[in-house]
Design brief:
The protein is an alpha/beta fold. The chain is built from 23 helices and 25 strands. The protein folds into three domains: 263 residues, Rossmann fold, CATH 3.40.50.10540; 77 residues, formyl-coa transferase, domain 3; 244 residues, 4-Layer Sandwich (Nitrilase/N-carbamoyl-D-aminoacid amidohydrolase). Strands 14, 15, 16, 17, 18, 19 and 25 form a seven-stranded mixed beta sheet that branches. Strands 3-2-1-4-5-6 form a six-stranded parallel beta sheet, sandwiched between helices. Strands 20-21-22-23-24 form a five-stranded mixed beta sheet, covered by helices on one side.
Length: 672
C-alpha cells in the first residue's frame, strides 16, 4: 500500500519527505468542512501526502469563528487540516478542472463531499478518473446517500444527529433531545470513510483496481447507535434519555461529591462490592436490591440517592484517590483547561512543534505517536508546487518514471507454475509504482540445457496465443508494460524471443538475431529483423529490447541508443554477473550509449548473474542478490539520459534499417 509507488498518468507535486505506515500515498482531498477533512487528516497523520483543493475563497471553516488564531484563521479549520498541502482551484473554470483531473490521474485516493452529479460535471467522478487511473480509490461523503430520494439534500451534522436518533437518546431525563458537544456525525462519517479507503487500498493490492467508497452522515449516525439500536430492534421499546446514566449498567454515570461531580463506570458485581467498601457501606453489595447489575438497573434511583449521600461527605479528589486505589473505575469530570493541564494528556497528545498547537493522532504504531509534520496550510500555500508539477518543471517526480527488473527461477516446462510467478511479479512491480518491468529469458518455458537440446519437447510458447494475450490484459489492468524473454515455438521452429506486453496487447516482438554455437546446436533459429525502440504508455523514454546479451552487445546497444532508445531492456539467462555487466556497460558508455540498462536474470543458478538497473553514467542503481526472487526498482530520469548523451557518438549505425531517433544527434562531448 506504499503509495508513491502506485503509478498513474497524471502529475503530482514532489511529495515532502516523510515516514509513516502510509508514506507515499497520494491523497487528493476535494472535501471541505469537517467529515472529509477529518478523514484525510487521519491518512495524513499516518504519513500520506494529502493535497487539499480549496476554492479561491478557501474552505468555509477558515472563516467559522470565533475563535480565531493569530493569523485570522478560524480554529475550526486548524483542528482538522494539519499535515496537508493547500492548492486553490476554481472547479467551475475549465482550466482548473483540467489541473484537478491531472492531479486525480496521479492520485491513489480522491475524496469529495459534493452533492451527487457535481463530480461528474467536473470530470472527477470515479468512472471518469478510473479510466485514466484504474488503480484510483475514490471516496464520497454525502448527507443521506447518493442513491436515495434525499440524495440532493445537503447534509449537516446537527440534522444527521436529529434524524438518526442520536438526539433522541441524548439529554437529561425528562428534558429535551440534545445534540452532542462535538459534531460526532461528521467525525464518525470521517472515521468510517477512513476505514473504507484503507480497505479499498488493501483490495487494490489484490486486484490491481481501485474502488468507489461512500458513506453518509445519516448512515454513520445510525450505524453507531450500537446497543441503543440493537436494544430497540430486539424489543421494540423506545430507549429513553437518561442524562449521563447508562441504560443497561448501574452505577454508570456522574455522582455529586462535596465539591463537584465524579464519574464512575462500575461494570461488574465485584467492582460494585469494592465501591461499597470504599464508601463505608459494605452491606450494600448484599442488599437484595443491588446484588446483580439487573437488580441495580431496576432500583437505579434508590441506589443513586444512597451513593450520593455517602459521596457528599468529602470532596471529589478524596474519593478519586480511594476509588482508584481500590480498583473502582472513576474519573473527574474535567473542563478543557483541566484536560490540557493534565500531564497524561498534555505529554502524549499536545504538539506545539510547528507553532500551531495541535492534538496529535491518538494512534501509536510500534509505540511511536504519529508526528505533526506541518501546521495547517495557508490558503493556496502550495500553488506554485502544483503549477510546476503540471507544467513538468525540472527535477520533479513528474519527470521521472519507476522501472523494475524481476528475478526468479523458471521451472523447465512448468508453464502454469511459471505463469503464476510472472503474474505475481507484475502485480508486485505495479504495486511499487513501476511502469516498466523486465523479466528473464524463458520466463514461461523455463530452461534446461538437456531439455532444450532435445528440442524442448512440449515446450515453447505461441507468443501471439491466449497466454500472452491474457498476460497483456493483466499488464493493462495494472498500468504497466512488461518486457520478457521467452522460448518461442513458431511453425515447429524454436526462437529465443523478446516480447513487449503493453496496452493490453503484444506490442513488440524481437527474435534474437545472433546465436551462440551452443544455441545453434540446440536447434534455435535466429531472427532476421533488428530490434527497434518502441514507445510505451507512461514512459518518457523509448525502450529497446534485447535478448540474453546478444553477441556484440555494445554495438547493438549503441545502435538502439542512436535510434532513440533511452532504456535497454535485456532478458537474460546466462552468466552475466555483476562485473561482466559493468564492463559491458562501461564499453557502451564510452561509445555514447547514454541509456539506462535494465537486465533481468534468472535466480538460483550458480552460473547466472544478478538482475540490475544501471544508469546512463554506468552506475548500478538497483541490484538483486544472485539467488533472490522478486523485483528491484529504480526511478529513471530522462534528463540524465539527455545529459549523458551530450557527446559525439560513433558516426555510423552498426546495423542497417535503424535511423537515429529524437535527441540522438551528435553533441559536443562534456567532461571526457
Amino acid at each position: 500500500m506504499n503509495g508513491s509507488e502506485h503509478g498513474a498518468r497524471g502529475a503530482w507535486p514532489q511529495s515532502p519527505a516523510g515516514k509513516g505506515p502510509l508514506a507515499g500515498l497520494r491523497i487528493l482531498d476535494l472535501s471541505r468542512i469537517l467529515a472529509g477533512p477529518f478523514a484525510t487528516m487521519q491518512l495524513a497523520d499516518l504519513g500520506a501526502d494529502v493535497l487539499k483543493v480549496e476554492s479561491p475563497q478557501g474552505d468555509e471553516t477558515r472563516r467559522w469563528g470565533p475563535p480565531f488564531t493569530d493569523d485570522g484563521t478560524a480554529a475550526y479549520f486548524t483542528g482538522v487540516n494539519r499535515n496537508k498541502r493547500s492548492v486553490t482551484l476554481d472547479l467551475t473554470d475549465p482550466e482548473a478542472r483540467v489541473t484537478a483531473q491531472t492531479l486525480a490521474a496521479a492520485a491513489d485516493v480522491v475524496v469529495d463531499n459534493f452533492l451527487p452529479g457535481r463530480m461528474e460535471r467536473f470530470g472527477l467522478d470515479h468512472r471518469t478518473v478510473s479510466a485514466a487511473n484504474p488503480r484510483v480509490v475514490t471516496c464520497t461523503i454525502t448527507g443521506y446517500g447518493s442513491d436515495t430520494d434525499w440524495a440532493g439534500v445537503p447534509g449537516f451534522d446537527f440534522l444527521a444527529q436529529a434524524m438518526g436518533g442520536l438526539m433522541a437518546v441524548t439529554g437529561p431525563q425528562g428534558g429535551d433531545p440534545t445534540k452532542t458537544g462535538v459534531a460526532v456525525a461528521d467525525l464518525l462519517a470521517g472515521l468510517y470513510a477512513t476505514a473504507g479507503m484503507l480497505a479499498a487500498l488493501h483490495r487494490r493490492d489484490e486486484t490491481g483496481r481501485g474502488s468507489h467508497v461512500e458513506v453518509s452522515l445519516l448512515d454513520a449516525v445510525v450505524g453507531s447507535l450500537a446497543n441503543q439500536a440493537s436494544g430497540y430492534l430486539a424489543t421494540g421499546r423506545e430507549p429513553q434519555r437518561l442524562g449521563n446514566a447508562h441504560p443497561s449498567i448501574v452505577p454508570y454515570e456522574t455522582f455529586a461529591a462535596a465539591d463537584g461531580p465524579v464519574a464512575m463506570g462500575v461494570g461488574t458485581d465485584r467492582q460494585f462490592a469494592r465501591l461499597a467498601r470504599v464508601l463505608g457501606l459494605p452491606g450494600l453489595a448484599e442488599d437484595p436490591r443491588f446484588v446483580t447489575n439487573t437488580d441495580r438497573v431496576a432500583h437505579r434511583a434508590e441506589l443513586k440517592n444512597i451513593l450520593e449521600r455517602a459521596l457528599g461527605q468529602h470532596p471529589r479528589d478524596h474519593w478519586l484517590d480511594l476509588l482508584r486505589a481500590a480498583g473502582v473505575p472513576a474519573s473527574p469530570v474535567n473542563s478543557l483547561a483541566e484536560v490540557f493541564a493534565d500531564p497524561l494528556v498534555r505529554d502524549r497528545l499536545v504538539d506545539v512543534s510547528t507553532g500551531s498547537p495541535q492534538i496529535r493522532s491518538p494512534l501509536r504504531v510500534d509505540g511511536r505517536p504519529a508526528p505533526v509534520r506541518t501546521p495547517p496550510p495557508a490558503l493556496g500555500q502550495h500553488n506554485d508546487e502544483v503549477r510546476t508539477a503540471i507544467a513538468g518543471g525540472a527535477g520533479g517526480p513528474a519527470e521521472t518514471v519507476r522501472a523494475a527488473v524481476g528475478q526468479f527461477a523458471p521451472v523447465p516446462g512448468g508453464t502454469e507454475e511459471n505463469l503464476s510467478a510472472v503474474r505475481e511479479l507484475i502485480v508486485s512491480a505495479a504495486d511499487r509504482g513501476a511502469r516498466l518491468l523486465v523479466l528473464p529469458e524463458y520466463s514461461l518455458s523455463g530452461y534446461d540445457r538437456a531439455w532444450v537440446a532435445e528440442g524442448a519437447p512440449g515446450g515453447g510458447s505461441d507468443i501471439h496465443g491466449e497466454v500472452f494475450t491474457d498476460l497483456a490484459r493483466t499488464c493493462e489492468l495494472h498500468g504497466i508494460s512488461v518486457v520478457m524473454g521467452e522460448l518461442e515455438r513458431s511453425d515447429g521452429l524454436l526462437y529465443s524471443t523478446s516480447v513487449v506486453l503493453s496496452g493490453g496487447a503484444v506490442a513488440a516482438v524481437h527474435r534474437k538475431t545472433t546465436l551462440t554455437e551452443q544455441e545453434t546446436a540446440h536447434g534455435l533459429r535466429s531472427g532476421d529483423v533488428a530490434a527497434s525502440p518502441v514507445s510505451l504508455p507512461g514512459l518518457p523514454l523509448p525502450v529497446g529490447q534485447m535478448v540474453c546479451f546478444e553477441h556484440g552487445f555494445p554495438e547493438i546497444a549503441l545502435d538502439l541508443a542512436l535510434a532513440g532508445a533511452g532504456v535497454l531492456a535485456i532478458s537474460s539467462l546466462i552468466g552475466t554477473g555483476h562485473e561482466y555487466l559493468r564492463n559491458l556497460r562501461t564499453r557502451a558508455r564510452a561509445q555514447d550509449n547514454g541509456a539506462y540498462v535494465l537486465a533481468a536474470n534468472a535466480a538460483g543458478r550458480g552460473w547466472c548473474g544478478a538482475s540490475m538497473i544501471v544508469n546512463p553514467r554506468g552506475e548500478v542503481v538497483a541490484l538483486a542478490d544472485r539467488d533472490a526472487q522478486g523485483i528491484v526498482c529504480a526511478d529513471l530520469d530522462p534528463s540524465l539520459v539527455e545529459q549523458e548523451r551530450g557527446a559525439e557518438p560513433v558516426l555510423r549505425l552498426r546495423r542497417p534499417g535503424l535511423r537515429p531517433g529524437p535527441g540522438a544527434a551528435a553533441q559536443p562531448r562534456q567532461g571526457l
